[in-house]
Design brief:
- Strand 1 and strand 2 form a beta hairpin.
- This protein has one domain.
- The model has no long low-confidence stretch (mean pLDDT 90).
- It is elongated, with a radius of gyration of 20 Å.
- Strands 1-2 form a two-stranded antiparallel ribbon.
- It has one helix and two strands, in the order H-E-E.
- It is mainly α and 63 residues long.
- GO terms for molecular function: peptidase activity.
C-alpha cells in the first residue's frame, strides 16, 4: 500500500511539474513574440484599454 501511495505522489508531482513547465514556456513564447513585434515596429510598449475607465495604459509583463 505504501508503494502505491508513493507512486501516486510521484505521478502527481511529475504531472504538476509538466503543467507548470508548459505554462511557463507559453508565457515566455508570448513575451518573446510581443518583444519581437515591438522591435519590428519600433514601439516602446503595448497599450491596452482599461474596460472600466476607458483609458489606455502600458501592458504589464504579467498580463
Amino acid at each position: 500500500m505504501a508503494q502505491l501511495i508513493t507512486i501516486l505522489v510521484l505521478v502527481f508531482s511529475a504531472w504538476w511539474l509538466y503543467r507548470r513547465f508548459v505554462s511557463d514556456a507559453r508565457k515566455l513564447a508570448e513575451k518573446s513574440r510581443r518583444a519581437e513585434k515591438e522591435r519590428q515596429t519600433g514601439a516602446i510598449g503595448t497599450l491596452v484599454k482599461d474596460p472600466v475607465t476607458g483609458e489606455y495604459r502600458l501592458k504589464r509583463d504579467e498580463e
